[in-house]
Request: fold
Amino acid sequence: MVLALEAEDRATFELIADWTNDNLLRSDVALHAWKYDPSSPDRVPDRNNATDGDILIAWALERAGRQWGGANGAPVRPRSVRRSASGWWSIALA
Reply:
């Protein structure tokens, strides 16, 4: 996502962001699983997050909001904003 921002490639950014949300976003907290294994029956065998990955995702979304979003750095193409049972918020891209 960060590299797509640097290349000013919004289509690729949105493709990666959508894949990330569809495949790695956890349903219980606004964090992303760290491991994806396409050869595993459970493609996300370890749902734990990696803090550095979550920070990079958040930074990329914030930068995309400033670069391509609406006024005041609005998120890029928000599809849904939801709050988990534990109180965490997440924003999914459309």
Observations:
- The beta strands are 78-83, 89-93.
- The mean pLDDT is 80.
- DSSP finds three helices and two strands in the chain.
